[in-house]
Design brief:
This protein is an alpha/beta fold. Helix content is 33%, strand content 13%. It is built from seven helices and six strands; from the N terminus they run ββαααβαβαβαβα.
Length: 213
C-alpha cells in the first residue's frame, strides 16, 4: 500500500510504499488486548504492602488468662481481629509481570500499526528534525497539521532539537523506533512515523517466509 509523505510545514514530499504484512492487516482486538495487558502488568510497581501480625508494633503479652473469663480465647493484641492488629493475607511486594511469546508481541505491534493505517490515523513524515528546540515552533506546526494527541516514531535515534521542543508540549510523545509499542500507539489519536522510522519498523517486524532459517 502507498502512503503520502509530508513535511513538518505541511508540504508534500512524495509517496512511500508500506509493507502490507505490517500496515495492511485486519486488526484483531484479542491480540491487541493480550499485548496491552502484558505491557501494563509488566509496568505495575507491585510495591503494595501491609503489616502482618509479626510486624505490628504492639505488646506480645497475652491480654488475659486463657480460661475463666467467659470470653473468647486470645493471645496478644497483634491479632487481625483487633484494632491496630496485623492484616491477614494482605498484599505483599510482588511482580505482576507474566510471559508473552515474542511472536505474539511482534504480531500485536503489526496489528496496532495496521489499525492506525486502516483508520486513516497514520501520517508519514519526511523527517522529524528542527533547527532549534523551540516548543512554540513545534506547537504551531502541530496545530496547523491538526495534531492533538499524537505519537511520533522516528528512526534509530530522535533528533535532539525535536525531542526538546516536544518535551513540554502536551499531547505529543516522541519515541525512537526501538521504543514503538502497542499501548502508546493505541492511546494516541494520531500516529506519525518518519521515513527512517518506517524503514526501521519494517526491518524489525519483517515476516520471515516459512521454512527459512
Amino acid at each position: 500500500m502507498k502512503a503520502e509523505v509530508i513535511t513538518l510545514d505541511a508540504g508534500k514530499a512524495g509517496e512511500i510504499e508500506l509493507d502490507d504484512a505490517i500496515f495492511g492487516l485486519d486488526p484483531r482486538a484479542d491480540i491487541l488486548h493480550r499485548v496491552v495487558r502484558w505491557q501494563r502488568a509488566k509496568a505495575q510497581a507491585g510495591t503494595h504492602k501491609v503489616k502482618t501480625r509479626s510486624e505490628t508494633s504492639y505488646s506480645t503479652k497475652k491480654i488475659y488468662r486463657q480460661k475463666g473469663t467467659g470470653g473468647a480465647r486470645h493471645g496478644d493484641r497483634n491479632a487481625p481481629i483487633f484494632r491496630k492488629g496485623g492484616v491477614y493475607k494482605g498484599p505483599t511486594p510482588r511482580s505482576h509481570a507474566h510471559d508473552l511469546p515474542k511472536k505474539v508481541r511482534a504480531l500485536g505491534l503489526r496489528h496496532a500499526l495496521s489499525a492506525k493505517a486502516g483508520a486513516g490515523k497514520l501520517v508519514v513524515l519526511d523527517t522529524a528534525a528542527m533547527a532549534e528546540g523551540k516548543t512554540a515552533v513545534l506547537a504551531k506546526a502541530a496545530r496547523e497539521l491538526g495534531w492533538r494527541k499524537v505519537l511520533v516514531i522516528d528512526g534509530a535515534a530522535v533528533d535532539e532539537n525535536f525531542a526538546r521542543a516536544a518535551r513540554n508540549l502536551d499531547g505529543v510523545d516522541v519515541l525512537p523506533s526501538i521504543g514503538a509499542n502497542v499501548y502508546d500507539i493505541l492511546r494516541r489519536d494520531t500516529l506519525v512515523i518518519t521515513k527512517a522510522g518506517i524503514e526501521a519498523l519494517e526491518a524489525r517486524l519483517k515476516v520471515q517466509p516459512k521454512g527459512s532459517a
